[in-house]
Amino acid sequence: MAKILAVCLSDRRGVQKQEVPEAVLRAEHGIVGDAHAGSWHRQVSLLGIESVQKVQASLDFQLRPGDFAENILTEGLCLYRLPVGTKLRLGPQAVGEVTQIGKECHQDCAIRKAAGDCVMPREGIFVRILEGGKVRPGDSIAVL
């Protein structure tokens, strides 16, 4: 079963996100209080712990949830293999639609500078929120 390991947000763009106990996903907006929320196609970012572990293996320091600026850290689902248009149930109520796989990494990426690599451009995904709801660590994720 795929699940949410961490929920993270930040109040400005271009920085690592901080772990929070839960978040509210609002339809056609994203995570309430997150800098990336709004009426565009990259409202919420997801990254698999499996992708983080690939980078972690070569580091002398511990990566934390949100270090790649992901909103939702997942386990048990190969996110970057999901086709654009795939719908996901996030927690008990929310539904998101995959809008993009990967992204261009900005020049000042703190993890890229520290680790020499950032996995988000290759394996992170973005979703647009179709139906809102709360999400928290431990919630399930299902492909609809």
Summary?
This protein is mainly beta. 12% of the residues lie in helices and 36% in strands.
Describe this structure in words.
With 144 residues, the protein is mainly β. It has a single domain, classed as M1 Pyruvate Kinase, Domain 3. 12% of the residues lie in helices and 36% in strands. The chain has helices at residues 49-56, 110-115, 120-123; strands at 2-9, 18-20, 23-26, 30-31, 44-48, 72-75, 87-90, 94-101, 125-131, 133-135, 140-143. The chain has a 7-stranded mixed barrel with strand order 1-6-5-9-8-7-11. The chain has a 3-stranded antiparallel sheet with strand order 4-3-10, with no helix packed on it. The longest helix has 8 residues, at 49-56. The two termini are 14 Å apart. The mean pLDDT is 89.
The percentage helix is: 10-25%
Share of β-strand residues: 35-45%
The succession of helices and strands, N to C, reads EEEEEHEEEHHEEE
By secondary-structure content and strand pairing, the structural class works out as mainly beta
Biggest β-sheet description: 7 strands, mixed, barrel
Number of strands: 11
CATH architecture: Beta Barrel
Q: Taking all residues together, what is the mean pLDDT?
A: 89
- First-to-last CA distance: 14 Å
The number of helical segments is 3
Query: CATH H-level name... which superfamily?
Result: PK beta-barrel domain-like
Number of domains: 1
Question: What is the CATH top level name?
Answer: Mainly Beta
